[in-house]
Design brief:
Elements lengths: L2 E4 L8 H7 L6 E3 L15 H10 L5 E4 L11 H21 L3 E4 L7 H13 L6 E5 L9 H10 L4 E6 H7 L7 H11 L5 E6 L1 E2 L10 E2 L7 H9 L9 E3 L9 H11 L2
Parallel strand pairs: 1-2, 1-10, 2-3, 3-4, 4-5, 5-6, 6-7, 7-10
Antiparallel strand pairs: 8-9
Helix pairs in contact: 4-5
The protein binds zinc ion (2 copies).
Amino acid sequence: MRIGAHVSMAKGFPSVFDNIKSVGGNCAQIFSHSPRGWKFKDVQKVEEFRERYKKEDIKPIVIHNSYLVNLASLDKELHKKSMENMRKEFETAEILGIDYINIHPGSNKDVKIGLKRIVQSLNSIETKAYLLLENTASGIGSEFENLMYIMENITIKCGVTLDTCHAYAAGYDIVSSLDNVLDEFDSIIGLEKLKLIHLNDSKFELGSKRDRHEHIGLGKIEIEGFRNFINHPKLQDIPKILETPVDERRGFKENIEVVKSLVE
Ligand SMILES: [Zn+2]
Ligand SMILES: [Zn+2]
């Protein structure tokens, strides 16, 4: 199975390989720069990264966009910065040959206006990189229909990341009716568009609309929920990335071990 985690690349892009191997993963997600700032450094060690990416069995590698970016914003300054940031992300992915850029669609009190703004924004960017739209716990992106609307209106190559915590918090009951949720996903978006799973337990209950990640099996999805989820025939082959907390209870290594122990 493809299981990994969101790891640091603070020591340069090639450090992602050692960081993910040290926790027992074989795929990874990174930030290309500090996610709480706008600044990018020049992309360095490109050859070394590309070399290792070819050689190592660590695939895919995904860039997660900055938390500050909001492509749905009507605030001119914020939107301008967000667009510059996205262009840089795409550029970085192209330079490094990274598979996917994962983004949160954006937020706007008016979902319709927000969706249009996102489409317009993405259509003004030219890139060969592959975009992943992530489902959210509330607002734009919390309904599969929102993601589909964006996908069918943009020209960039695009798929979907399903975050288990976000789906559960948004009200999709992946614990007691996983088949129904997947059928719904399939009829609205198409399961072939599901390229990545963010595997996180949820601190809060079904439909809470609150985005708080928990260690695998220690939240409301519970261990049996994950056993059922990761062994589902339609989900087995999709890469899974943990964005679970790192605290005194567990780190990524322990959560990856838990996930592996559930494989049937
Ligand atoms: Zn996520
Ligand atoms: Zn989250």
